[in-house]
Amino acid sequence: MTTIAESAPRDAVARLGPRRDRELARRIARSAAAPEGAFLATDEVDGWLAERRRAHPFRVDRIPFADLDGWSFAPESGNLVHRSGRFFTVEGLRVTGTDGPFGSWHQPVIRQPEVGVLGIVVKEFQGVLHFLMQAKMEPGNRNLLQLSPTVQATRSNYTGAHRGARVRYLDYFTGPGRGRVLADVLQSEHGAWFLRKSNRNMLVEAVGDVELHEDFCWLTLGQIGRLLRRDNVVNMDARTVLACAPQAGADDTDAAALHSDTGLLSWFTGERARHDVTAERVPLASLPGWWQGDRSIEREDGRYFRVVAVGVQAGSREVGGWTQPLFEPTGTGVTAFLTRRIEGVSHLLAHARTEAGFADTVELAPTVQYTPSNYAGLPEAERPPFLDTVLGAEPSRIRYEALHSEEGGRFLNAESRYLFVEATPDEAPLEPPPGYVWVTPGQLNGLLRHNHYVNVQARTLLSCLASGAVRL
C-alpha cells in the first residue's frame, strides 16, 4: 500500500525571502512627502467632491420608526431588527465594572457580528504611491459626501443582502492574485456604541492597470494629509486604514523610547488583566432610564445619545434608497493626544481605555476621548483626567486641530474635535496617573499590525501623523 509520504510530490526549490519589506515604509514616506500627485491637484479636490454631489441625488430625512421599511421592533425583546436577519440589530446592554464616576449603566448598542472590509487600492505613478479614494455618501455625515476607502462594505453588502449593485473593486480584497497585500489586520470600531464589532483594514498594491470609475480618484498620501487638516473631508474608515500603513521607524527596535516594546506590552497586558468589565445583552425594551417615542429612543435626562430613524436617497450607492436606524450623539466629542519631546524624541500620552463593546475590554486610546457636555456639573475630582488641560490649551501649544466625522453609516452627525496638544511637564509628568503611558508614534504603529491594540479614535490621530498632516 502506498503511504501518504510516498505519494506526496517532492518539495519544490525553496525560495526564502525577508520577513519584512523595509523598503515599503520608505515608499509610504515618499508618498506622504508628496504634496501633489500625478492626477488631481489637492486644491481641485473640493471642486471634484462638489461635482460628485451634483452628479447624484442625495437626501436624508428623519422619519418615525413606523416608516422604517424592513425594520421592526421584535415582539418579545423590543430589539430593532431587519426582516432579513442581516445587517445589524439595535439591542440593550447592561455594563458593570468600568472605571470612572459611572461604574455601571444600561444603554442601547449596535450588534453587528459580521466582519466588514475597509480597503484602499494603492498603485505607483511616476515613482510615488497613490491611493484610490472614493467620494462616498454616508447618511450620518453632516456634509454627506466624504473621501472614503476604495472599498467600504459590510459582509451583508458585499454578499448582496441589499440586492443592490456589486461593490466596485471588491476583488482586490477578496479575490486571489489581484495585488500585493501591504497591510491586513482586524481593527475594532467604536466600543461605546458597537458590541465587539471589527473590520478588516487592508492596503493592497494593484498589479496591472486599474480602471478608474468617475466616483474615485488617485491621491498621494501627502495630498490626503493636507485634506486631513480640513474639517469633515476624509471619513473615519479611510483614516483607520491609513493609520495601519507601515511607517518608517516602527520596526526599528534600537529606536529610543521611554519604555521598551516589551515593557510597553507588559504594562498593557497588566491593564487588560486588572479590568473586569461585564457587558451583558438585555432586551432593548427593558432599559432602565431610557424611554421610547415615535421618533427616538433616548435617556430620560436627554444626555449621551439617542436612537433615531432616517430615510435615505443616494444615487451613487449600490442601492439608491433605503431606511435605517442611526445613533445620534447629543454633543461634540473632544479627542486629543497630549505630546511631549522626551530627550528629543516625540512621545504621546496614551490611555488604556475600557469600553463595553471592545472584544478585549481594553485598547490604547488618546489621552482624552470624551464629550464634555456629558461631564458638565461634576465636581473637579470626578472630571476625566487631562480633559481640562486640553480644553484650556493655549493656541500656541495646539499642534493640530480639525473636526472629523465618526462612522457615518451608523451614527448621525457624530463629530469630534481632534487635537494634538503639546503639554508641559507639570500638566503631563513622565510618571502619569494609573492607566496612562508614554509611547512613541512608532510603537503605536507597530502595534497596529495586530488586532485590537489601538482604538479607532487613536487611529484617526495616527493617520494624521502618517500622512504628514501634523509633525511633532
UniProtKB/TrEMBL annotation:
InterPro entries: EvaA-like, EvaA-like_sf. Pfam families: Hexose_dehydrat (PF03559). Residues 43-244, 263-465 form the dTDP-4-dehydro-6-deoxy-alpha-D-glucopyranose 2,3-dehydratase domain. This is NDP-hexose 2,3-dehydratase family protein. It comes from Streptomyces cavernicola.
